[in-house]
Each structure stands twice: as C-alpha cells, then as structure tokens.
Structure to design on (373 residues):
C-alpha cells in the first residue's frame, strides 16, 4: 500500500490540513518541469534556449506558482469531490455516499462526517477502501487532539489549531503503521 | 433509527465507551459557575440566561464531534423526529446519563419538548430567594445552548428555551426545541 497524500476540508470548504508523503506518479513528472533550477539564469545558453523553462522570467514565476500549487491542488480536489458527491446523491438518493474513484495512476478516497468535515486520501490504485481508516483518524486523532484541545479555535481558519504536535505525531504513527502492515 | 434501537445504542455507549466523572464534581462546578455569573452581572437574570446559553453554544460546537465519534454515526438522521430520539436517548444518555422524555410534538413535526424527570445539573440547588430569580433565571439554560450549537454543526438551525423548571416550583422541567431550518451546504468560492 502506498499513500500519497491526505487532505481535510472544513464545512466552509477550506482546506485546513494537507500532508504529502510521496508525490503521485503523474504529479512527479510535471513538477520536475516546474521546479526552478539554480543555474537557470546563468546556464541559459544557446543549448537550452529552445527550452522555455529556462527563461529567467519563467522560472521566477514558477517559483511563485510552486508555492501556490499545493493550495491550487487542494482547491481542485475539493471542487472535484464536492461535485462528485452532489452528483452521487442526485442519482442514488440522499443516503448514497461517494466513496472513491480510481484513475490509471491513483485512487482517491473520500469520507465525510455528519458535521461536514471532509477527508480525502490519495493512494495507489490497488489499495482497498480507506473509509474506515479516515473514520478512525476522525475519531482518534481529530476529536481527541484538535476538537478537545481547549486552546484550538472552533473554526480552523487557515488551518489554525490543526497542525499541533500530537495530531501530527498521531497521524504519522497511524499512517506508518498502516503502510508497514 | 427506531426509538428502542436508539435507547439500546445509548445504553451500550454509556456502558462501554464513556469515561465517567464524579457527578457531584460536575454539579458543584456548574453551580459555582452560575453563581459567579449571577454575581458578575449583578443578578441581571436575563443577562445570566444569555451568558449560560452562549457558554453552552460554544460547548455544543465541539461536543457534537465527540458525539459523532462516540456514537459512530456515519449517516444523518432522516427526519427531525429521528433527531429528537437521538438527542434524548443517545446524546443526553451518554453525556449526562439521563433520558428526557420527548413529548408535545406539533403537527408539522418541527417542534417538540424534552421533559427531564431528573436533571443532574440541578441537584442540591435552591434558587436565590430575592423574589426575581424564581421568575427570571433558567438555571440549566446552558443545555439550551449546547443543543443549539451541536445541531448547528450538523446543519440544523434550532431555537431552544426552557418553559418550566422544577426549581421554580413547576411540576416538570421542560425544554422546547423548534427547528427553524436546515442549513444548506456551503459552496466553494467562485474562481476569479
């Protein structure tokens, strides 16, 4: 089992937590082009002049876009799962749940609580349902370390209060344990 | 979920998954809080009720997550009647070990009463004998706030208030719960 990344979205549709373990194969190949290299300005010789990525203007921009990429990814993922969930409900009735979808490269798992907290996990294509895993994360980590932390705010605007030590530690242990199994 | 199934669920969670604390500790702590608020607001009981409700609301916003986790709820209640059953037989059971009776439904199924045969918050309590507390103070008003906050998080806007309290000399302790509306899902912001 390989787990690529994990996201939590709150009921205001904001991504309040994200974590990446390994880049999914498709993202890995595209991001190589996006990463600005240090010699991009000095090494922009004639040999590279045909490569648009070595244009200094371009690499400065891509540095900014790399910073935004993660949050754009999160927004895209939310848009996708939100639409899929609504479509699934429209076709299969209110009680029907969108569970996962799979591409040639990865599998996306979705779990939503009654309080409209949404959990998304990207894994390799062979992984079985992770709904239960995400439910456990909600019960044992989210409730215990985020909700019951008196210093953490109720609304996690910008992810406030989520990224605390116990939650991070617990999540890492839980996921590491899963992968080792 | 049927009424009997809900009460079995509540019973089972209470027995197996709940950490218990000393009831007197809770009662005395709550009593002290109410007494202090009365002092802070110079016995302006309308304001005290408001403050208790607000405290409860903030508790409810968080408590709902604990409720969902403990009760292992994976799906929403299908109607407000089921919600009422779950509140009384699971919610109150697992957090306070009481099961209020659900009565007095209105015909549109949007309003019901919770009648508390026992109210652990009110043990040992006598309202101040200043001639006003008996008419103005709702001692357990924090519970109204808890319900309002918790239900808001699962997309139900409700209005809650006490209409009688044995502490005031009434025969029963009764809370009225009214469903105002179901809250819609929030949509992601439009791209610019």
């Amino acid at each position: 089992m390989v787990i690529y990344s994990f996201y939590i979205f709150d009921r205001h549709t904001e991504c309040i937590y994200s974590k990446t373990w390994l880049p999914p194969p498709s993202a890995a190949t595209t991001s190589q082009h996006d990463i600005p290299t240090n010699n991009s300005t000095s090494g922009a010789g004639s040999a590279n002049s045909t490569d648009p990525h070595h244009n200094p203007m371009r690499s400065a921009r891509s540095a900014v876009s790399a910073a935004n990429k993660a949050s754009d990814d999160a927004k895209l993922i939310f848009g996708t799962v939100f639409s899929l969930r609504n479509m699934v409900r429209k076709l299969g009735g209110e009680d029907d749940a969108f569970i996962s979808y799979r591409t040639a490269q990865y599998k996306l798992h979705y779990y939503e609580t009654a309080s409209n907290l949404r959990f998304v996990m990207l894994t390799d294509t062979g992984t079985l349902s992770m709904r239960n895993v995400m439910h456990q994360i909600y019960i044992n980590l989210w409730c215990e370390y985020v909700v019951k932390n008196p210093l953490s705010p109720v609304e996690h605007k910008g992810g406030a209060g989520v990224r605390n030590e116990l939650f991070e530690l617990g999540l890492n242990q839980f996921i590491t344990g899963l992968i080792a199994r | 979920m049927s009424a009997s199934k809900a009460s079995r669920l509540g019973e089972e969670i209470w027995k197996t998954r709940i950490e218990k604390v000393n009831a007197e500790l809770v009662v005395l702590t709550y009593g002290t809080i109410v007494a202090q608020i009365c002092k802070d607001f110079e016995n302006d009981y309308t304001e005290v009720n408001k403050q208790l409700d607000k405290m409860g609301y903030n508790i409810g916003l968080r408590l709902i997550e604990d409720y969902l986790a403990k009760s292992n709820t994976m799906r929403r209640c299908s109607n407000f009647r089921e919600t009422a059953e779950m509140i009384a037989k699971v919610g109150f059971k697992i957090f306070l070990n009481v099961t209020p009776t659900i009565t007095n439904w209105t015909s549109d199924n949007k309003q019901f009463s919770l009648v508390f045969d026992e109210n652990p918050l009110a043990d040992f309590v006598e309202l101040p004998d200043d001639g006003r507390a008996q008419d103005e103070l709702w001692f357990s008003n924090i519970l109204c706030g808890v319900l309002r906050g918790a239900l808001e998080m699962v997309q139900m806007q409700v209005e809650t208030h006490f209409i009688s309290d044995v502490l005031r000399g009434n025969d029963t302790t009764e809370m009225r719960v009214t469903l105002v509306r179901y809250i819609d899902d929030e949509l992601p912001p439009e791209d610019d």
